[in-house]
Fold this protein.
Amino acid sequence: MRVYVDDDACRGHGVCASMCPSVFVITDFGYAEARPTAIPAGLEESVVDTAESCPERAIHVTEENHVN
Ligand code: SF4
């Protein structure tokens, strides 16, 4: 599974970084980023919960195992 944050939708309030700091960080530009985009083993549930909690629905989780 992979995760990414839609820059256009993110408003930077940091819910994601609080809920799952192992994956989500707030960059110097004030928006969230997923690092890494490949979700580490054991964190899938946390990432999905976080995506569902994002007030802007800016976090997208896919089943893809690779990025083009
Ligand atoms: S919770 Fe959503 S809108 Fe808020 S910083 Fe994280 S990705 Fe951006």
Notes: Residues 5, 10-16, 32, 54, 56, 58-59 surround iron/sulfur cluster (CB under 6 Å). Residues 44-53 form the longest helix (10 residues). Residues 12 and 28 are 11 Å apart (CA to CA).
